[in-house]
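As promised in the previous annual report, we have extended the structural survey to additional targets. Below is the entry for Beta-galactosidase.
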Amino acid sequence: MKKTSVAILFLMVLFTSSFAKDSRTQKDFNFDWRFYLGDAKEAQNPQFDDTDWRVLNLPHDWSIEQNYTSENTAGSTGFLPTGIGWYRKSFEVPTSWKNTITTIEFDGVYRNSEVWINGHYLGIRPYGYSAFSYELSKYLNYGGKNIIAVKVDHSNYADSRWYSGSGIYRNVRLVNTSNLYVPPFGAWVETPQITSDKAKIMVAAIVKNASGKQQNLRVHVSIKDKQNNSLASATKKLTSVSCDTVSLSLSLKNPKLWSIEQTNMYKAEIQVIAGKDIVDRYFVDFGIRSIRFDANKGFFLNDKSVKLKGVCLHHDAGAVGAVFIRDVWKRRLLKLKEIGVNAIRMSHNPGDPGLLSLCDEMGFVVINEALDEWKRNKGKWITSRFANDMRPELETGYGDDFEEWAERDVKDMVRYSRNHPSIIMWSMGNEIEWTYPYYFKMEQSNQGLGNQVLMEETGDGRDELKETAEQIEKWIKEIDQTRFVTTGGVLPKAGNLTGYFDVPDVIGYNYRAENYDEDHKNYPNRKMYGSENWGTYQEWKDATDRDFVAGIFIWTGIAYLGESGPFPWKGLEISLLDFSAFYTPRGHFYRTLWSDQPYTYLATKHEKKAQWKYENGKFIDNRVRHWLDKWLFEDVEQTWNYTEGDSVFVEVYSNSPQVELFVNNKSYGLKSPSDFSDNIVKYLVPYQAGEIKAVGVNAGEKEAEYSIKTANYISEIVLKADRTSMKANGYDVVHIEAFVQSKSGDLVPDKEMQLVFSIEGEGVNIGVDNGWERNVQKHKSNLIVTHNGKAMLLVQSTRKAGSIKIVAKAGKLVSNELLIQAE
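The corresponding structure token record, generated without further manual editing, is:
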């Protein structure tokens, strides 16, 4: 009876507490900032006059707004200017926030950000991909005006091997709590035991006591489903003086597991209770799933074998640069999902929290990667990577910051993203061996001389690279021991000699499939996968032929800015999707390898321009090989516009057992992809105006087809939108795809046309592009020249409801009118 009374009393306390005022306020802090491009002296002072500065919303990347140029820019970073920029924001906080904790949270600022509040210096964060926060409480003017100022110093335009962007390019929040609170990224969920009928859940939270006196608290945790039903709960008492970590164990019956196919999610509500009051309420989204790697059988998700169909991704998104926009990335991930991609490697930096959440929601497993450089910087090129024109005075990078910042940056990466069920591995770094010349010597030496090289180079046989890897792995596991640690290794022979390849739990092989078998034989307990791979059929076959290879990660999933040159070659389109997320030929091809749905596609090339020649009944590769060819795909076109009688090579990609090619309904025979070493069916046919069509055939029945029609003249501009309505929130984006077509409605890929977009109503043009790697037209424009018959316009909502009318013109041609509703 006594126990019952206590329980009832406790429930009454919770019931009463639920009516307390909201104990945690989180404000979107992205709107209405002022920005100045340049070094504004004394701009940190509250009295500084910024009335002439531009007003904008975050996230923001000032580099992508500018013109591409070869002056004071670098091919390594995409030929876009950098510099110094300042941001300022005026805001008020209520007097009720006195004696509470107010924090500003940044998801990422590139680079060397310094922050002031009301003239008080808060600190610097060099690494551009770290999430970080500052407490503002003791410097605020309660009930009055406050000024936050942020200086971003991205002066060095060659500090990266890819486009980084410049500015506050990720989200910012202002958070207010009581002085008894859970700090940013201060709670986490682990699921150490999972069966079909029960899951053990461990919820841990850091509780800070800034009240200045001892407090008797309770920490209450409730596990909720998507409908906000409470499924399990637990409470623990806590006597707190300053800072404590509390762990609670819960049991959940009949858990719905998170997987690639079923992305079930839960929410942990963590309440900090003092007396009758809920003084903080912190939420953690999480999923329940098990992961493991087997040295002989690869990767398992929820005890089911899964071959990783992965891609590497840089963080820029074409026309919007480094700015994270949820709708832009959702469209990109949907396209990858359509191809069959199930895994993403964030290359070569930690991913945006919003992108990780999308991976949770859409069903991708993720490698979140910490760094591209450790103690030594990698070379960066100015005009072109092919010219190898390094300038040592510009070759800065993370190596300059490693000693002071690496531990904090690595641990913060794990802290901010450890609750995402999509993440299965933490990557310490990428191809760090390049920065240690003796690794090359060891790789090229025979077995007996490798250790001798190490002794000669280091003097005592100690390998700094291996020791650094061991240190980074230790930092990661101090924060999270539920996932695997990996790295992208590129010199396996040397790594085996030094022991570097034995440091991570799972080792990634960058472009080293030829080492799979020998290393599996010599190191039978090693868990391995292809961490960076050429996008060829052979790379995928090398993985599927070996159960012990967990999968591959193609370089790359989507075209990215940088790592390019000479100008105007702004980036690399060695990808499944181009800069505008249109399919590339490789994307169509990999869809036939990775998708379970029947799919067939064809492309063409004039015989005189093709990489193939046809001799004695065989198709022979006619290319003069260059090292870059390993990344390049078939040089083909989506056109059926040639001269009568021309001989044309036709390539057909299909996952059907057979394909049949027709030109104007004349059959050129059945062939099988399996009869070709690259799994690409080839034909050589005479050109005739009309239609060319490939049909995928299974057991004599058609299951997929694709055709192209002759289309030489542009008669219309057709606009298509990926949505007809969006929220008037200043974030939502509609993608407008523009196609130039013939009178019969067929794409005209061979004619370029400049389109002029016009937008009326509550929508903002945030970028145009045509997907081409050599397109250096300014993205913040209403003009764009089509490429392959296509172009793209991105329109973002304002914060006002209303209609948006979009039209494109080219001379006398006027497109159809699109009407988008912002609600």
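The chain is about 15% helix and 40% strand. Residues 1-21 have pLDDT under 50 and may be disordered. These points will be discussed at the next consortium meeting with the crystallography subgroup.
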